[in-house]
Design brief:
Low-confidence stretches: 1-13, 227-238
Mean pLDDT: 85
Number of helices: 13
Shape: flat
Number of strands: 0
Largest sheet: none
Strand content: under 5%
CATH class of the largest domain: Mainly Alpha
CATH architecture of the largest domain: Orthogonal Bundle
Oligomer: single chain
Length: about 240
């Protein structure tokens, strides 16, 4: 066997789906989804696009694998604990922070209905909803409410961050500008937005997200145990 053939074989053997996904995540974090091409990926891996296709079918397959790797990492870091309420909060915050660190994930998940990254999120939420003691005929509704909140709100926050980064916007200045525009709204037509605008300037996205999770859990507990029992569990901080 020639030296050239031995070199090519050694390079291909070093290539794996896991390595391709790891390099793809790095590219996505630096360049966004538009910057992830098989040409750029091949350059980073010092190989040819053909070798990559031996491990990944296409860009859609790669995006699913990259997103699933991020979600799986959150799942491993926040395995189920003794108290499912704490587990739901910890996992939800883990997903929120992952979307914040990797904004492309939130957008990518919207194009993956029924695929492994979303199923992993749904299954983790569902396990903890079941551990709360939700009756079987209510599990789907409760799990979907929490799942949709985590993916929807977390994804929207990531999308907002992407827009801000793309336009080099300062978050404080952007929020102040929106607050001023709300302050100029007709209070008769927009009574709530007009009055609440001042709070927009200093709100904390992460704290707001967690407050929503707490409200959802409180609602589930209310359905399970009634108002009095929920009142005893209305504070279960991080």
């Amino acid at each position: 066997m020639s030296k050239t053939k031995r070199k090519i074989r050694g390079r291909d053997e070093a290539l794996s789906r896991e390595r391709i996904v790891a390099v793809a995540i790095d590219l996505l974090d630096r360049e966004g989804e538009a910057g992830l091409t098989f040409k750029s990926l091949a350059a980073q891996l010092a190989t040819g696009p053909g070798a990559i296709y031996g491990h990944v079918a296409n860009k859609s397959d790669l995006m699913v694998a990259a997103s699933d790797a991020i979600i799986a990492e959150v799942h491993r870091a926040h395995v189920q604990g003794a108290d499912p309420r704490h587990s739901i909060r910890a996992f939800a915050l883990g997903i929120f922070d992952a979307f914040d660190a990797h904004p492309w994930v939130g957008a990518a998940l919207t194009r993956m209905p029924g695929q492994s990254p979303l199923v992993r999120v749904f299954d983790t939420v569902g396990q903890n909803v079941r551990a709360l003691g939700v009756p079987p005929d209510k599990e789907w509704t409760a799990a979907m409410a929490v799942f949709n909140y985590i993916v929807g709100v977390g994804g929207q926050n990531a999308a907002n961050a992407q827009v801000a980064r793309a336009h080099a916007l300062d978050r404080t200045e952007a929020l102040a500008s929106i607050a001023r525009s709300w302050g100029r709204l007709d209070p008769a037509e927009y009574p709530f937005a007009h009055g609440i605008g001042a709070q927009l300037r200093a709100h904390d996205d992460r704290a707001d997200f967690l407050a929503g999770i707490d409200l959802l859990i409180a609602g589930i507990l209310h359905e399970l145990h009634g108002v009095n029992n929920v009142a005893r569990h209305d504070s279960f901080g991080e």
